[in-house]
Amino acid sequence: MENKIKKVRTLAETKFLSLYDVEYKNKMGKIKNWTVASRKDFETLKGQYLEGKEEKIDAAIIAALHVDTKKIVCVRQFRVPLNDYVYELPAGLIDGDEKFDVAAKRELKEETGLDLLKINHEKTKKGVYASAGMTDESAAIVFCTCSGCISKENLEEDEDIEVVMLSKDEVKELLKKDVKMDMRAFIMLQAFVELGEKLFD
Question: pTM for this one?
Fold first, then answer.
């Protein structure tokens, strides 16, 4: 496939998120510009777009079944862009050259206090995107089982998180309510209502 992206220019750069102006050629052969939000620094993004370097997965999203309670693990987290709490799956950024499965184990422990037991590698999917029209942010959705007790001991200073473990019936009730919810959590919770524990087999 022809590389449609021709140039990349930094518009704004911060620790966790940057904005880039990307010059590309559309299907009519016209040169256009697109603003892209990215977790990647300029050199990494340039390498990916212009030099054919392999894409780095940015985050791990954790779909976890607590084996003792048979409940799905969710979090209710304050998100500044929404100025509100939103239901999500536990998740976090992958550090440096860390493998996504290592990041999933670390983030699950950090956000919930729970211990990852086993990853279902057949269901786990790398390279999923939530808003490809705005950002290149990619994630691995990690299907796993976990155990242990909920704890807030490992939360970072800016993480305002409540852990919520839900049975199928509790998920059904939650989905009827007018609450803010991450789209990936919504899809996973819908699937849990239909499949229960089989979702994690």
Answer: 0.92
